[in-house]
Design brief:
The chain has about 375 residues and is α/β, with parallel strands linked by helices. It is built from 13 helices and 13 strands. It is about 45% helix and about 15% strand. Strands 3-4-2-1-5-13-12-6-7-9-8 form an eleven-stranded mixed β-sheet, sandwiched between helices. A two-stranded antiparallel sheet has the order 10-11. The longest helix is centred in the N-terminal third of the chain and has 31 residues, at about 105-135.
Length: about 375
Amino acid sequence: MKPILGITMGDPSGNGPEITIKALMKPEIYERCRPVVIGDAVCMEAAASMVEGADGFRIHAIRKVEDAVFAFGTIDVLDMGLVDVSKRLYMKDWKEIEEEVGEEAVKKAYLESHRMCGEAAFQYVKKVIQLAMDGTVDATVTNALNKDYINLAGHHYSGHTEIYADYTGTSHYTMMLAHENLRVVHVSTHVSLREACDRVKKERVLEVIKIADKGCRALGIKNPKIGVAGLNPHCGENGLFGREEIEEIQPAIDEALALGICIPERKPTPPDTVFSKALGGWYDIVVVMYHDQGHIPLKVKGFVYNQERQKWDAVAGINVTLGLPIIRASVDHGTGEGHAGDGSANELSLMNAMDYAIRMAEAKITN
């Protein structure tokens, strides 16, 4: 049986609806899985009208997953009915609306739109988690939401990862980013750089090494090789400029080695070389110490801007939350506020996320 994928529509004023349409216009998706969108049918219909070639596809609004037809040419949408499209505003329309109604009126209208879209995006995520927890869907895939908007709607989370952890009752988890053969997992993510340094503790580093090993095995990698990045330049040069490698990271590595986890170099690797080694096949995954240490190399590799054409040729890479009792893969980009609503968003990252979710679901079913 092909796995059922629950795909959240993302922020209704973002690029999620249109890239979801583009992804589900590809027949190979239906050859590998049974996709159902968690969102608002009216938003998906509006997105289909702006995507070239989508006029022959039917948006099928359903109330429960069991009513989905899972057939190419029909896009099943579990319709939450949360968005009034007459009040949904795209950021690209700001200037035009401002000229019509004035600055203060447009600010008020956008505030109302942001709050509505934040509430809707949050509820889509909450619903797909519920569907995965009760076994209705085999894996979840999330489009981007706007953190400011969900907080404006009264849901105080810093992102998808924290929502998933809360609603699944998970305390030990981490974010994995991946693009092709480069994968990274984080000791900390959405905190200040100062706080991130303070969070480099033996217990947390060891925990993430274990999660990295388990996550690779969930992808079908039988004997994962793990690289562990240092925190400081040159890994601190034996304590000359930082002792985190000596006092926290190396003890975590030693304990992981004692558990039989494969860390080929048996010590932390300088951050300025660890990713080149990973791309060269030294490791299957790299444990990084903070958000940007992992995000920057992934996005340098996966995000390709064409200066001549003034557009993105590729927005690739995915985000997987490891350590959860359910499968969650996500796009590794934002809502694309400046261009959302014009049909130009690139669906490659969503396609990659769906691929990872399918692979993890198949491995879970097999095991």
